[in-house]
Amino acid sequence: MGSNLGDARKNLHEAGMRIDSLEGVCITASSAIWQTEPQDLKDQPWFANQVLQLSCDSKWTPEGLLAALLEIEQCMGRSRGIRFGPRCIDLDLLLFGDRIITSGDLILPHPRMRKRAFVLIPLREVAGNLIFPEGDTLDQALACLRFLTTDNRICQE
């Protein structure tokens, strides 16, 4: 989850509560909130980012969960204007078990997650022993990145 408009921490909290209230979905772990510099469009406020680990009952599909996340974004006022621009909330589906999916609206694992320290560092907090469906570990993915962290701030070089 990410937010850099309004009260970003409050936005993350509200999004988490909405996710946790989905029938058959439970948050089982959450990372700290990390302050991260914008990656693609630099001229905007820093982001607050957090990773949640969810448990979903068997009625949930990756496509259904993505649709629910997009609906939460819309209900919270997310407008899609500038790609990689400022947003009140951004909810991404990173993984869904060991599923590998490439369809029009959904690619799993998330295609840019291994290039983003702001995803991998908080992901390590909730799933430190993660092995990606393709077989590489979270630590291997992090070793390929150059980044600096101080006081829950992530700067990626």
State the strand order across the main sheet.
1-4-3-9-8
Strands, count:
9
Q: Give the C-alpha Rg.
A: 15 Å
Cα distance, first to last residue?
21 Å
Largest sheet: 5 strands, mixed
Separate helix tally: 4
Name the shape in a single word: globular
Order of helices and strands: EHEEEEHEEHHEE
Share in helix: 25-40%
Task: Give the averaged pLDDT, no decimals.
Answer: 93
* Low-confidence parts: none
Query: What structural category arises from helix and sheet content?
Result: alpha+beta
**How much β-strand is present in the residues?**
15-25%
Q: Can you give a write-up of this model?
A:
- The chain is of the alpha+beta class and 157 residues long.
- The chain has helices at 8-20, 62-75, 117-126, 138-143; strands at 2-3, 25-30, 34-36, 47-49, 52-56, 101-102, 107-108, 147-150, 153-156.
- The strands form three sheets. Strands 1-4-3-9-8 form a five-stranded mixed beta sheet, with helices on both faces. Strands 2-5 form a two-stranded antiparallel ribbon. A two-stranded antiparallel sheet has the order 6-7.
- The longest helix has 14 residues, at 62-75.
- The radius of gyration is 15 Å and the shape is globular.
- It starts with a strand and ends with a strand.
